[in-house]
Specification:
The protein is 14% helix and 28% strand. With 185 residues, the protein is α+β, with helices and mostly antiparallel strands. The protein has one domain (4-167). Strand 4 and strand 5 (90-98) form a beta hairpin. The termini are far apart. The relative contact order is 0.20.
């Protein structure tokens, strides 16, 4: 793993870049009429306890899972593999999905005990890319500090897949993006 100060600086840099994109870019999910008041996303402080190097347990039988999205559409995902890890004394498992067998991206949607309270109620996502997130030893850098809200959390113009119940964690994940604070709240 990267030295803690390098990791933290990189994470904070990524967060600032995302805030800038959300504030000014034409493709920002923040509605144009809200961008002038947008002061940045809200995050938990970086916490190294929520970053892991994990073995990916690939499923031999990759079942098709149909997941409904916030627009009422059904999306097909392959239940590709799972990650097993511990947070404190709690054993956890999260499924990783692919939209297509040739896709390089692993999609890990999850809900946890903060969902609907401190974080977006429908859950958060983590995306892992082989080239960026896989170590030379074949382990995966899995970092909840990079958990993000789907764009449907910011605008009704987007639809996002719901989190399958198999990826609902009972524990709180005190890392990553929190709910966006809006002026009217």
């Amino acid at each position: 793993m990267a030295k803690n100060s390098d990791w933290k600086e990189g994470l904070e840099r990524e967060r600032k870049e995302k805030d800038k994109f959300f504030a000014v870019h034409g493709q920002s999910p923040i509605p144009a009429e809200e961008r002038a008041k947008f002061r940045g996303l809200v995050y938990y402080p970086p916490n190294a306890d929520y970053q892991f190097e994990l073995e990916l347990h690939e499923h031999s039988d990759k079942k098709l899972l149909q997941i409904e999205d916030t627009g009422g559409n059904i999306r097909d995902f392959l239940r590709w593999a799972e990650f097993q890890f511990k947070v404190g004394d709690d054993e956890c498992t999260l499924q990783a999905y692919k939209s297509d067998p040739s896709a390089e991206l692993l999609f890990i949607p999850f809900k946890d005990a903060t969902s609907g309270k401190e974080t977006y109620g429908a859950g958060r996502y983590i995306d892992l890319e082989h080239e960026r997130d896989c170590t030379p030893e074949g382990r995966w850098r899995f970092d909840f500090n990079k958990a993000y809200n789907p764009w449907c959390a910011y605008s009704k113009n987007y639809v996002c897949p719901f989190v399958p119940p198999e990826n609902w964690l009972k524990i709180p994940v005190l890392a990553g993006e929190k709910k966006l604070k809006r002026e009217e709240e």
